[in-house]
Amino acid sequence: MALPFLNYQQYHLMDNFMRAAIEEALKGRNEGGIPIGSVLVHKGEIIGRGHNRRVQKGSVILHGEMDALENAGRLTAATYRECTLYTTLSPCPMCTGAILLYGIPRVVIGENHTFMGAEDLLRANNVELTVENDETCIDMMQRFIERHPTLWNEDIGE
Amino acid sequence: MALPFLNYQQYHLMDNFMRAAIEEALKGRNEGGIPIGSVLVHKGEIIGRGHNRRVQKGSVILHGEMDALENAGRLTAATYRECTLYTTLSPCPMCTGAILLYGIPRVVIGENHTFMGAEDLLRANNVELTVENDETCIDMMQRFIERHPTLWNEDIGE
Asked: CMP/dCMP-type deaminase domain: which residues (chains A, B) (predicted)?
């Protein structure tokens, strides 16, 4: 897979799970979609992967995080409560609501420079957040938003 | 379609849109699924219908409201802001987040006796709520929860 925005040295040093989320985002971009990716991790293993499918499926609910949750399938509440969700971009209110519904206790966020999601609501509900503000994630979204502002606004309800 | 839980006189006097949401819920129940339905209404017309698909599609994100939004397709922000969402049951945090993401200003809720969703969060964000506490909706959910407590708990992350 082409990874044109990546500093390769940085990429290979990166957390494996955030790397997998970025790979999902790039899959989406290569399909002509919005480059946001996510993985759901349980006890050190990826159990769901996903990326935004607005363009590809005409979907208004398949944000990256939602797609990863959907692809993980039906899980018990006990399993969700041992999971960490990785996402390349700060989670919007919808994805935040899904995280709260299922009681996912930890979220690792690639960046919140290009879009600030509902992080306050997550924190208020005791979700542990790690914001990496990773340059690859920021660069990927900045380029996308510059080129496709209308599509981006549609995805965030603006 | 069989409507065994309905008081027919009440049903025919009911708001057409809540009636359509109940019809969706009953479709779901007839498919062996969780009986929660929803319709998205724009300028007096239903533009999206849906029901919970956890059982039918193994979906963890297709709650009734999410399915209605998905089936309405990609809409402009201006259109969402003229919509009303009807749902047979108080919206969970995920569906609440979707309502907030797209700026839907009004939600009509069939009932919140069997499950209280994130109504406080909706109100705090100036979403206008009408809670009907309709007996048909309450009865439909009560019977379902009594018969399928494990499935119900799974759907609300418990």
From this structure: 12-129
